[in-house]
Structures are given as structure tokens and as C-alpha cells.
Amino acid sequence: MSSSRRSRQASTSSRISDDQITDLISKLRQSIPEIRQNRRSNTVSASKVLQETCNYIRNLNKEADDLSDRLTQLLESIDPNSPQAAVIRSLING
User: Which residue in 12, 19, 30, 63 is a FRET match for 85, CA 20 to 30 A apart?
Assistant: First the structure.
């Protein structure tokens, strides 16, 4: 079998159906607070749902980075051998 034929078969077998996309967009609508709080969340377009999802993920990443920075600062201000330092290190290292 040629490699181009194999790649075509792989791409068609991994395609997502329209129903699956609709279901995923619906799940995102329910998961993203900015959309869920909207009374007309069912009328928000799929592209808007995806934009809001990306914004939400960016904000979560920023919050996680900020929390990590705060924990690092806290760790630097306490006794490195204390039980609290061990807890903070475990939070930072995940």
C-alpha cells in the first residue's frame, strides 16, 4: 500500500462527525463560565464558544502561573526545613 493511500485512510478514519462536533461545542457551552452565565448560551455561535474557550484556558494558565509565583515567594520567606515548606514544594512540583 502506498504511503499517500495510507495517510488518506488514516485521515478519514480520524475525522470527527458533525454530530460529534455539535456535542463537543454543547459541552464547552456548559463548561465555560462566561458562556454558561449567558441566558442565551444556546444561541452563541460555535466560533464564539471556541474563542471564549481559548480565552478561558489562557486565563487559567495565567492564574496557575501567578499562584506558582506566589507559592515560590512564600517558600523563600519560610524555613526550608519546616513542614509548611514541604507542603509548598509539593504544590509547586505538582
Answer: 63
- d(CA 16, CA 4) in angstroms, rounded, equals 21
Distances (CA, A) of 14 to 7, 10, 18, 76: 11, 6, 13, 48
Q: pLDDT tens-digit profile of 6-59?
A: 555 555 568 999 999 999 999 999 999 989 888 787 888 999 999 999 999 999
pTM: 0.69
Q: How big is the CA angle at 6 (ends 22 and 16), to the nearest 5 degrees?
A: 5
